[in-house]
Amino acid sequence: MNIRKRANTKLRPEVNRIIFVRNLPFKTTSEELFEIFGRYGPIRQIRKGVAGKTKGTAFVVYEDIYDAKNAVDHLSGFNVGGKYLTCLYYKHKTQPKAGI
């Protein structure tokens, strides 16, 4: 997407640079994740879950919000090792207000 098109594109409020990925095969390596998600733009960081409830999940942080949107649009339902990925935008938890 060129810069002019990006300037005219309004993104939904939940769209951000951080993607939460579920349903990864446990044997997926970080290098494979960089290969799969790197097709959609420069990646700042990938954090892969390694134990307990986090196994089979990852956080992918893109440099650019439009690259993250493109990755979610194309990789939700993508087959990796016989499993279909679930890609969601990370939701920041809000802190409860003090005194309420």
TrEMBL record:
GO CC term (a single one): nucleus
A single BP term in Gene Ontology: mRNA processing
Keywords: mRNA processing, mRNA splicing, Nucleus, RNA-binding
Main location: nucleus
InterPro entries in alphabetical order: Nucleotide-bd_a/b_plait_sf (IPR012677), RBD_domain_sf (IPR035979), RRM_dom (IPR000504), SF3B6_RRM (IPR034150)
Domain RRM: 17-92
Localization per Swiss-Prot or TrEMBL: Nucleus
The protein, known as: RRM domain-containing protein
Protein's organism: Euplotes crassus
